[in-house]
Amino acid sequence: MPVIRIDQREIEADEGTTIMQAADKLGIFIPRYCYHPGLSIAGCCRICGVEVEDSPKLLMACATPVKEGMVVRTDTERVKMGQRAVEEFLLLNHPLDCPVCDQAGECVLQDYSFTYGFGESRFREQKIKQRKKDVGRDLLLYADRCIMCTRCVRFAHEVSGHDQVGVFNRGAHTEIGVFPGIRIDDLLAGNIADICPVGAFLSKDFLFKRRVWELKSTKSVCPACSVGCSVLLDHADGRIHRLRPRHNPNVNGHWMCDIGRMDYKMVGSADRLKKPLARKNGMLEEISWSDVIAYASGRIRQIITRHGADALAFVISSDATNEEALTFAKLAEKTGSLQNLRLLSGKRGERIEFAGGFVIESDRSPNEHGVLDVLKEFMPRESQERVTDLGSLAGKRGLYIFCGSHSDRGSIQLLARAAAAADFALVHGNVSSPLTEAATMVLPGAAYAEKEGTYTNLRGVIQRIHPAFDPPGDAGHDFDIVLQIAGAIGNSLPFQTVAAASAELARRLRGYVSMEQTGDTGWVNPYSRVAGATKG
Amino acid sequence: MDEKPDTEGKREEIVREAHEMNFIDRLYLPALLKGLADTFRHLFEEKFTIEYPEQKRQVYPRYRGLHRLNKDELGRVKCVACFMCSTICPARCIYIVGAEAPWPDREKYPVRFDIDELRCIYCGMCEEACPVEAIELTEIYDMVGASRKDLIYNKEMLLEIYDRTKEKGGMKKWI
Amino acid sequence: MEPVLLAKRHIENSTDINIAIGEGAYKALQKVLTAMSPPQVHKEVMDAVLRGRGGAGFPAGLKWKFLDKNPKRTRYLCCNADESEPGTFKDRVIMETDPHMLIEGMIIACYAIDAHAGYIFLRGEYANSFRILTKAIAQAREHGFLGDNVLGSGFNVNIHVHVGAGAYICGEELAMLESLGGARGWPRLKPPYAATRGLFYEPTVVNNVETLACVPHIVLRGADWFKGMGSENNYGPKLYCLSGHVNKPGVYELPMGTTLKQLIDQSGGGIPNGRKLKAVLPGGSSSAALTAEEVDVPMDFDSMSKAGSMLGSAGIIVMDDSTCMVNACWNVARFYAHESCGQCTPCREGTNWVARILGRIERGQGEPGDIDMALTICDNMLGQTICALADGAVFPIRSIIQKFRAEFERHVRDGACPFGAKRKWYSVLPE
Amino acid sequence: MNRECTCEGKGVNDEFTAEQWKLVDDVVRKYRGKPGALIPVLEEVQSITGYLPESMQRRVAKGLGIPLSQVYGVVTFYSFFTMTPRGKHQVRVCLGTACHVRGAKRVLEEMERKLGIEPGGCTDDRQFSLDLVRCVGACGLGPVVVVDEETHKQVKVAKLDAIVDKYRAESPTAEE
To answer: What is the ipTM of this complex?
Structure first.
């Protein structure tokens, strides 16, 4: 492997990599516009020029492969001059509308102008102006802000594969666009707004909602399908404003799909359950947490004593985290109803694969894989095959259903009928559904953005989610709710915190680690049933 | 450090011991008359107080009072909802909700623009930060309200302040 | 000098294959196919030090040598006939007077590099050349010089003519290959070079028309004959295009190294109307300008670069003392602004900006700092782009500003052009 | 996903005759599947239709199986392609450096006056359209005016009348 020197620091770079990649490895930052690690190399923005010994010109760090003994300088006057020149050129026709541009604050052009730019304009001519265009379901194009890095064009070609973003005209009139009448409506379109280093492509959904510097970012995992893309929840004041993909080579690469991108709306929806409810005279009415826990545990104990533990069934949805699933299974184990433990599967959709290898899985819920792993660990072997057979629950006297917002509608209907027929149906969820309508008592839980824990994706990658803010109203954390119910029934569990449950999980399940050990890119379970990861 | 600071002597000058009161002093009458004479004399001298609220104090040109939201030539709010003022505001008293402007020549405008005038510390940073000279501090200092809520000025109220003060022109007259 | 490349110029119907054969066409091909192996042909061209006539002067033999020789890959020969450089029209003369020389050269080159398809990327404006070439190719095919089993040698080769659609940038090697592939003519990032990843992503050699036209002569008469012309390292006959303010504009074939002064005064017959020489763009519009004092310089690759300019395509544009240099400079700048492909930032923005500044100066709206600003913009563009178009814009603009600075300053000072007050402006750029 | 053209028919107006459409389809068929076909196809199509409006680009893109964005990108990149109707005769005045120094500008001015149109325009009777070109490779003959495929060398203002009248005479006064 070639050894090169960058700014007097030596590094052994991988064969075939570029100066840019080697510098990134060393933590030496070289500015870039057109370079994106998830796309092919264009080399057209010309800002990453570095001085290489024995080369008369500045070489583009993004496009120059490393060679043994190469000596690179990124901090000389010539390099800085080159950067300044490119900055000046880019700003010539760039409108100064940062105050109303959503990109301001995370705009690469803005940042570099401060770091590398002249700080003043020598351009006295008229700027080329253009109107904004509506180019897709969630995309606006402000062509005059474009700096022609062509990331979007390469993305449309290499990752989405639809090729509908193109470069038109030439010279100073060169612009990015789509053919008149064409709209970029594929499910990866949102990434175009993400990779645009300036405010040329903007998301309509996020348009003018917030200035980006007001947002806090929380690392999480997208719950919209079983790929479980690593994401950042950008939120402020207890509301998510947008989702962005978080680079994870184990899972999603650099991208995420628009289904996941828009899934955050459920977190702040009006359908969220905010108060515990109990049925009085046939109507669901609000009651306090202490009452609902006491009543619910009382009814569960009653059913066990009167009809035996087999009259009691426990259903958990694929929205639950591994830790919640563990607690839930423990509860079922304590009450002696493990044979009646069931999985409420997630929604199903079309499996979509894109040109660049990015996949949207047909299982549109976050953790079916992980919940199943946990349930199968606990359930007796003979009843394991019935783990998804919800029909077998008809006629059970008592039901505790841990419902999710990504659950299969048919299964919910089925369970709702079972719940209506049962003596007692405790429904624990975060949004109202036919199931909560049929419940005897409703426990308001948290959405994925509000809780802590781990999800296991379809390929066995265990990823951690972090809470961005508290659940709305009186809604509680699901883990605590299950713990409290267990405690009130008289079967307190051997752990009290999510972290402890996670550690327990790591001890019990083959190939699992605790949530602290997952890191930002997740832990790939070596014993997972499906090997390999989707690359984006 | 051989030069001793000349503070000792000064202190001596200031701290004087009260002298012992004699009989005359203890009558208080001379002092009383002297005081009355002082008061009486001031009746004929130049007065510094004003008859507020009938009379208003003339403030200095750089005075920082109640905010106003300026309008453009077409009477539309000048503000582009860039959130610079709310970002810079040390008291966090500005609340803006931006939206797409209904006018073809403008990109963004505020649908809501609230300033909590009680939280505000009148530092004028908002005015400084504004890229379009939309928010300015006027010379108005007498805000009255029956409750705290009354002193949260919304967009309409702030625009009305502009109408009330616009003849005075831009507030940045000292620049 | 005996004309070599222009030998058939004054022969009637020289484009007809029978007349051409009568004049000696395809003799070299017969020799190659009967008596020479591809390496031998290659060696002959290598020994002749045939430097590319397109502008850069890179030896054709080396170009062939660098070609990826992997037998599994398809190799292509591409003839660069996209002669768009203002002031250059030598290739057109070759194609229209002696198309068979070019075709023969291409067949021999294909033979040498083991390619079986040759493409002629013809400039779209050359409609007449297209007619002549297509006819000539059809005739060559009829005579068995093209197609399968050429002259019974077992060697197969075909030549296709691609008509460009109007873009100067397609004269750049990799942009041309992109354009041939049906895309926008955006130069590709180098490396990989065309020798490994060219037309349709296969190894490709791109040679200029004049370069390929030299090949049959080298093969037929030997490298030593070729080296008998010209000076050290700059051998062979060369076509010079004279245009602008000369009495006899046109294409002249002279040995490499004829001085510029000779060309203007003797071949071109001097400056018309008794005017004086003011400036020369010696190598097409993308070469640095030379003043009247600097024209006594041999027109070959090395001497010209020593003189601070370049031989380029040897398109000599002569300007007499009635020419407003600001106007000329602006014209050049607008050309490059119009033809910039828009890929690299410095070129896309810089060419346009400089053109607009120069336009302002010419209109009398220049400001004192504008001249220096234009120079710094030139510096910022130079060597900062994927292809050489920006450099080609910088060389003439910067040299004209530097060498005729007083004239620019006068425009700024007087607020008007001293050469003609009122003009109407034509521009492809928004003003 | 958007590869298929969804609005065919919408853009197809009665600008072109059925016969023209057929010729266009023939050209597309001839080149289909060949590498690098796009530019020759567009050149031939433009020679049939005179210009390349959106409807024509859709037809070509669909026929060749090439993304619309690429067709549009190519059409807007090369100066030969035009998306606005052109005249029967295309007058191109060279403004290359060599012609420029020999007075091409005056020729252009006069040509503009004579035709009554600006560069880029087309006369109302669609007989002439006027364009600027940057060097046609006839620098020795400057100033040069190219009408259709014929090059007129060393054009002087006085000669313009004859040139224009020649083409005007050639074309029938009323076509339809």
So the answer is: 0.89
